[in-house]
Amino acid sequence: MVDFEGIVTVFSKRLTLLAYSVTRDWYTAEDVVQEAFIKAYKKIDTIEDSGKIGSWLAAITTRTAIDFLRAEKRRKWIPADLSYMDYLESFTETGMNPEEEVEITFLKEDLYKSLNHLSKEYQEVLVLRVQYGLKEVEIAKVLHLKSTTVKTRLHRARKQLKLAITEKYSA
């Protein structure tokens, strides 16, 4: 019988550092390690060589961290305009290496930060359009606005996001 509590004590710090190297966020890394330990606990009986537990746990942690980043990427999808959306989607179709995945993750984070700097009226229409997939007419009904007002706000919000991202990445 394997002392799983001892394994957690010995490897948790090392695995947290490994998860952080992938996720670049301490809280996320801790969540990843906890999930990795749960996966390992369920499969602990399958390990044959107890000397390889560390590398086995490292592999589980790395895969869990990458899976977590991929899931985050799907949840945080807000393109600034069609050119960025086409650029980002091209990688999911062709496949990405880890460096490209991290680059895309940072780009999306920048988009969210830029979104938070928009006025409330621009944030509302953009989130309803992108996150919830509502059409301009539907957004107009929800916000009690004219369809042309929604169209104008969407255009201006995208323009401001594009400008913010372009300034950041051209500097």
From TrEMBL:
Domain of life: Bacteria
Family as reported in the entry's similarity comment: Belongs to the sigma-70 factor family. ECF subfamily.
Domain RNA polymerase sigma-70 region: 13-75
Domain RNA polymerase sigma factor 70 region 4 type: 109-161
Gene3D superfamilies: 1.10.1740.10, Winged helix-like DNA-binding domain superfamily/Winged helix DNA-binding domain
Name of the protein this chain belongs to: RNA polymerase sigma factor
Record's keyword terms, sorted: DNA-binding, Sigma factor, Transcription, Transcription regulation
Biological classification of the source: Bacteria, Bacillati, Bacillota, Bacilli, Bacillales
Species annotation: Mesobacillus persicus
